[in-house]
Amino acid sequence: MRALGQNPTNKSVNEILGNPSADDLVNKRLGFDAFVPMLKKVDALPKGTVDDYVEGLRVFDKEGNGTVMGAELRIVLSTLGEKMTENEIESLMQGQEDENGSIHYEAFVKHIMSV
């Protein structure tokens, strides 16, 4: 699904698949005829907007200047919601921090959503 431009959460995928066991996830294959309706369900799920994500990051903007500390954002990305791996976080944040370790979160969100 991700290769087709969708980015469902793991929870959404598990629900669409009928909450399969870990063994089923590893050992069963999904045919094209079963995949297409699932892709349509994912496509119909509400998508977050730039404003939604900016508002979510604003709570970490302690100084009210449109920035968050990169270190704090790394912790959030690795511990809350869909937890990201260290490699995923580093790839996502590459080139985003300024000389003070801050990230302008609105530009960060726009960058992520444009990729």
Automatic annotation (TrEMBL):
GO terms for molecular function: calcium ion binding. Residues 48-83 form the EF-hand domain. The keyword Membrane does not apply. GO terms for cellular component: contractile muscle fiber; myosin II complex. It comes from the Eukaryota. The keyword rRNA processing does not apply. Keywords: Motor protein, Muscle protein, Myosin, Repeat. InterPro entries: CALM/Myosin/TropC-like (IPR050230), EF-hand-dom_pair (IPR011992), EF_hand_dom (IPR002048). This is EF-hand domain-containing protein. The lineage of its organism: Eukaryota, Metazoa, Chordata, Craniata, Vertebrata.
